[in-house]
Amino acid sequence: MQYNRIIKGFAVSSLSLAMWFAGSALADVKVVTGPSPIEGDVLIHPEDITLYNDKIAITFAVGSPNFWGMTNGSISNLAVMQGRDQFGVNIVNDVEFLVNSWTASGGSLVADVEVIKADTDEGVVRATSTWLGDGKGNALDVVTTYTLTKDSNVLQLQTVVSNPGPDSYEDMRSGYSLSALSAFMFGPFGYDTPDIRARNIHIGAGADEPLGDFTVSYTEDYAITVQMDDPDIYRGTTGYKDLHKHYNLAPGESMTFTGELQIADNGHTSPFMARMIEKKGLESSLISGVVYNNQGEVHANPVIVVEREGRYKGEFVGAQNVGADQLHVNMQPLFWHVGDADGSFSFQAPEGEYQIYALDAGFTPSQKQSVTVTSGEQKSLTFKDEYAIIQGGTVLLNIADEDTGQPVDARIEVEGEVPAVKYLGRRTYFTELDEVGLARIQLATGEFAFNILSGAHFNSMPVRGETTVRSNEVSEVAISVKSDVLPNQEGWYAVDFHHHTDIGDANTAPVDVVRSQLASRLDLTYISDHDAVSNHTEVHDLSVQRGYPFIPGLEVTPGWGHFNLINMPINHDIIDSSMDVADIIKAAHELGALVIVNHPFSDYGYLNNRDIVPGGYSPDFDLIELQPTIDLSKPDNIDTRTLTQAMRFWDESLKGEGKVYYLTGGTDTHEVTSPTLYSGIIRTLAKVDDDLSVEGFVEAVAAGRSYVSMGPMMFTQDLEFGQTYEVAGGEALSLAVELFAVNGLESVELYTSGSEIGSPVEVRALEGAEGRQMVEFSLQPSESTWYNLIVKDKSGKAAISNPVWIDVKG
């Protein structure tokens, strides 16, 4: 797969471009400068550095750009060696040291990267940079050293952050970040809900959890572990995971961070646990045994999951987790091991109390066995008879519209725990593209309930179903979904304007992206991968085969701000994210694309970093994104700040002082099976007067004939969003809109120029009204202004309109 991380003008050269050897050509540690020899990615700058031995290979992006637009010198390629000088495919998106989490301001973005040592036994690469905090008179010095030794699959990490003074640095969050490349993630141990977008979770030393210091990226074929000594804060989601220390740094002080990166050439983490036993000097013992299935046969290559009680501090609030003093203690997976072809397994475990069980794809997990590990006392476990794993069965779902009987696309959420090892199964499925309404699901045996979502919370409510799954049998279930509203039959069409596939830190195959977007009842498909367009063709073809228009997009990803393109030419060359912001926007416009400012007030949001962007702030973008993290009850919520800024932009436009910017909605989905962040849960709905086309829809979005919704629907009457209407001073006019929400309508708020979020000029209480409700506001403006609406349903979900412009004459 091509990942489009390309520096134009450089061609891939041979492995012998520049190489240091200690001794013969068979030296155990080698360093190569120039294009990365690792397969499957494109780091081709002559200054890039690859460090490798006979087990692993690491390429540092020195001349090539860092994937996230942060400081260069990070690890951008990583591979398992397949033999002497035989490189495997790239298996990582990025590993780097973050000076203050993902804060874009302050970083020099240019590190001095050099080879310090390259001999038979050891290779050492060092990256030196600075980091200047906002309002500080002096920068911090940051030195990261990477060390690879002979015959080792472990890369040693050390970073020293020094403050030469005179200013103090407070409330710093520094540490190592692991960004997966189309892979699953795990960890840190202790925090048992790791697939939720989270920040400021207290783990490791912050929760008195000695084993809560590592994160994992893995597939069936490999596992990458990044471990940091004594972290106390976690931040991450499905595509990246960060381990941080929270600290202050006075003038003259320094902080040293140490850790390791390890690769296993199988999809398990037991080798990492063996390494931790060695590194930390933990007392341990050997656990071995055999796994059988319910036919009495040994089961080849079983997966053994080892659970232990883990700890973290924090509490769930909305879409994010925030630090708190509340301690959570739960039994949870610590590591897992893939057994041999003869069903046997053997691994080391630290002293402690465990629950251990066996499982495999399509099988019911075994019963758990309680094990106490004591140093020097080997344990033998047999998973047989009542402890055997049991062959599962198949559920055949047929999902149709209740009124028409026609099959519909749907998302199926099976209740129950997701398998600890995610490549063995999941709990979220989708109907087929070529067999609409049909889903075939392999499940373990037992009683199952599932929720069917087809445009759920927008067009319909979720429908619950139940079935019994028996070993080697097929259970057929028919489900009907009641469609309460069909806005596309009234000229309102929906799209999710921020969506990823399986490039970079995302992990959704193009076919599943299309399945997911259709299951959410989106009317057009759209993707915006980080600095990549290589999945355009596949998503286009899959969409067109089903009769859905496809809008090609791209997320340009400098570290100081991300931008989505709408309707660029399919498969066109990407835009260089290292350019100045004005040049990025100009290049997008030259492609005929609209430019969205993504998550504007996040750490890496353009409006948040407008004072430090290369080339200075440019106002030439077109649209502003709202995300599903929006909580209008909190002024400091990043999406509330975005909406507040949009309203100020509208005020400036009235005075002729700025460009008109309209709102869009995008989820930023990376993994469609996520339980909380998936296709279309926030969306852009636009009014298209003629038959639906990409051009017509994009024109409507550019003109502001649209709104953003997480559920409620708006149907404009005489006055359209984004349009300008002339009236005489003091003349009365009516803003009428028909509203609907499948969850019931709670209220609609009217805002105008000068309004503040939470202080509308008028509120209509709708008290949970069901069915369509016509709401009319009588207006009599004395000067030119704008009006917009915020509609809320009973569940708290909101819809936010773009403004109606009123030009008062006389």
Report on this model:
This protein has 810 residues and is mainly β. The chain contains six helices and 53 strands. The strands form eleven sheets. Strands 36, 43, 44, 46, 48, 49, 51, 52 and 53 form a nine-stranded mixed beta sheet that branches. Strands 8-9-10-11-19-16-15-13 form an eight-stranded antiparallel beta sheet, with no helix packed on it. A hairpin with a 2-residue loop joins strand 5 (75-83) and strand 6 (86-87).
In short:
This protein is mainly β and 810 residues long.
Q: Tell me the total number of β-strands.
A: 53
- Backbone shape: globular
Low-confidence stretches: 1-27
* Global mean pLDDT: 92
Over all CA atoms, what is the radius of gyration? Answer: 28 Å
Please give the largest β-sheet.
Answer: 9 strands, mixed
Q: How much helix, percentage-wise, in residues? A: under 10%
Structural class, by secondary structure, is: mainly beta
Strand content: 35-45%
The separation of the N and C termini measures 62 Å
Compute the number of helices: 6
What is the element layout, followed by pairings?
Blueprint: E1 18-20, E2 30-33, E3 49-52, E4 56-60, E5 75-83, E6 86-87, E7 92-98, E8 112-118, E9 122-131, E10 140-149, E11 154-162, E12 169-180, E13 184-186, E14 198-202, E15 214-218, E16 223-228, E17 233-236, E18 240-249, E19 254-264, H1 270-280, E20 284-291, E21 303-317, E22 320-338, E23 344-350, E24 352-359, E25 363-364, E26 369-373, E27 379-383, E28 390-391, E29 393-401, E30 411-414, E31 428-430, E32 438-443, E33 446-453, E34 463-469, E35 474-481, E36 492-495, H2 510-519, E37 525-527, H3 536-545, E38 550-556, E39 563-566, H4 581-590, E40 594-597, E41 623-626, H5 638-654, E42 662-665, E43 683-687, H6 694-702, E44 706-709, E45 713-716, E46 724-728, E47 733-740, E48 745-752, E49 762-769, E50 773-779, E51 785-793, E52 798-801, E53 804-809
Parallel strand pairs: 20-27, 29-35, 37-38, 40-41, 41-42, 46-53
Antiparallel strand pairs: 1-2, 2-3, 3-4, 4-5, 5-6, 7-12, 8-9, 9-10, 10-11, 11-19, 12-18, 13-15, 14-17, 15-16, 16-19, 17-18, 20-23, 21-22, 21-24, 24-26, 25-28, 29-32, 30-31, 30-33, 33-34, 36-43, 38-39, 39-40, 43-44, 44-52, 45-47, 47-50, 48-49, 48-51, 51-52, 51-53
Helix pairs in contact: 2-3
